[in-house]
Amino acid sequence: MSNEDSGKALTDYPRPSVAVDVAVLTVHEETVKVVVVPSPRGPALPGTFLHPGERLADAADRALRTKAGLGGLDFHQIGMFDAPDRDERGWVLSMAHGTAVPPGIVESEVELVAVVDEKPVTSLAFDHGAMVALSVRDLRDRYASSVDPAGILGDRFTLLELRRLYEVVFDKDLPKDTFRRHVFGALTATGETSLAGGGRPAEVYRRSGAAALPESAAAMLRS
Amino acid sequence: MSNEDSGKALTDYPRPSVAVDVAVLTVHEETVKVVVVPSPRGPALPGTFLHPGERLADAADRALRTKAGLGGLDFHQIGMFDAPDRDERGWVLSMAHGTAVPPGIVESEVELVAVVDEKPVTSLAFDHGAMVALSVRDLRDRYASSVDPAGILGDRFTLLELRRLYEVVFDKDLPKDTFRRHVFGALTATGETSLAGGGRPAEVYRRSGAAALPESAAAMLRS
DNA sequence: CTAATAGTGTCTCTGAGACACTATTTG
DNA sequence: CAAATAGTGTCTCAGAGACACTATTAG
Questions:
Q1: Minimum distance, in Å, between the CA of residue A176 and any CA atom of chain B
Q2: Do A45 and B18 lie within an 8 Å CB cutoff?
Q3: Given a cut of 90, is residue A197 above it in pLDDT?
Q4: Which of A16, B84, B200, B216 would be A91's cystine partner, CB 3.0–4.6 Å?
Q5: Cβ separation of B1 and A94 shorter than 8 Å?
Q6: Nearest CA among A213, A31, A43 for reference residue A122
Q7: Percentage of residues in chain A with pLDDT exceeding 90?
Q8: Nearest-CA residue of chain B relative to A76?
Q9: What does the pLDDT read at residue B2?
Q10: B31-83: per-residue pLDDT in tens?
Q11: Rounded percentage of chain B residues whose pLDDT exceeds 90
Q12: Between chains, do A84 and B51 touch, taking CB under 8 Å as contact?
């Protein structure tokens, strides 16, 4: 905020309602998907109004718990959507948040909508489609500088699983040997192996610490 | 926003005041600086309360015009600051915005505070110091992918001027030949020359179109 | 054995960075 | 002329990407 508006007191202006909406992204069946919930205007992102004195991230958490059965995620602010006519019910600002989760923790009755080319394939209520688009870009930015920071794969995974995840997130094929050399420094081998592939067992890795990727990895991922 | 909160109407909740604050960055005398204005709590970013039905960017523009004599800039949302106790006068959320300007357009009576290591050297009111820090990071992100997108140098400049600007923004020395090869593709020669240096005249360039930099430039700039 | 997948040695070629040389001005 | 700055040719070395080979499983 600021110094006061030359004599205007805080209460002099009508205030907007402030809401939060959350784009919960995941990767399932080789596709980026987003959690949506039913609303009178069709599928929408889970959201809620901010309660008095509440933090935005707490409101986001509350919305996710009550509407999608998801709790304890960490949110990123994506952008404040402030078109005065974005909600016919009145003046409502909404802070869009983004997060990502492993597909397994989304309950089966929660609906997932595929996201292709940064756009949900089903059109969403309000300006929620634009929120999803920005969330996907944010996801890419974060995945370009760190190995699976949202833990979509959980804490143990093979290089094949990791590469498939990155191919879906960045929507491009990635060569296995080059990919391996780019991410290897950010991983720690667990000693375990996985036979999921059907051929030679794959080493199982976990993220090392922050799992930071070199700048060169971002160049590879963004083409 | 979202589907309504199960029966709660829009007016049922007390609403926060919503403010905007703007970190106007510039580069002057080899230093990143930020525009501050006086406030009862000491130097603060220019800001104001959002008027009914107003867009955040319009409020930001209004704050800058009335408090710093700057208009028509383009703003980037930096983050919503929402600590319930961030303003003792009440519950005030503030959307921090960032922008950058050529030093020449800042009127001489407007105060500039140097920003070192992403922190203003003078402590600012409220959480404005944190807003400045985030704005500097945003500035770096934007300058890493495009040539002087905010036009701090105006539309014509020599490579020396451009390199000095980037050295200040990224706080590191940049080799002249390597720097030149990284940015050259994003520039168009004007045919004019500048004698500002005192030696051989320097070619004057302008940004070509979007002036997008290659990914490799980001790697150089971020070390 | 074959098929399938995992992992790596190695080659090539690009290009980033360093160095130094040439070019063009002022005094 | 010397001094200062601008611009570039060239060398080297790292490393990205491609290819192909070896490794380890199942059947």
A1: 21
A2: no
A3: no
A4: A16
A5: yes
A6: A43
A7: 91
A8: B79
A9: 42
A10: 999 999 999 999 999 999 999 999 999 999 999 999 999 999 999 999 999 99
A11: 91
A12: no
Every domain of chain A and the residues it spans? 10-145, 157-222
Q: CATH assignment of B10-145?
A: 3.90.79.10
Quote the minimal CA–CA distance from A198 to chain B in Å.
37
Nearest DNA or RNA nucleotide to A178 (CA to C1'): D17
Q: Which amino acid is at A31?
A: T
Residue A222 approaches strand D within 7 Å at CB: no
Residues of chain B with pLDDT under 70: 1-12
Q: How far apart are CA B141 and CA B118, in angstroms?
A: 13
Question: Which nt is closest to the CA of B216, judged by C1'?
Answer: C16
Q: Does A53 touch chain B (CB under 8 A)?
A: yes
Q: How far is CA B122 from CA A68, B27, B34, B117, B169, in A?
A: 45, 17, 11, 13, 19
What is the reported pLDDT for A7? Answer: 43
Shortest distance between the Cα of B98 and any Cα of chain A, in A, equals 13
Helix (H, G, I), strand (E, B) or coil at B176: helix
Nearby residues of A57 by Cβ (< 8 Å), 6 or more positions away: A75, A97
Measured CA to CA, the distance from residue B19 to residue B141 in angstroms comes to 25
B204 C-beta less than 7 Å away from strand C: no
Q: What is the CATH number of domain A157-222?
A: 1.10.10.10
Same CATH topology for B10-145 and B157-222: the answer is: no
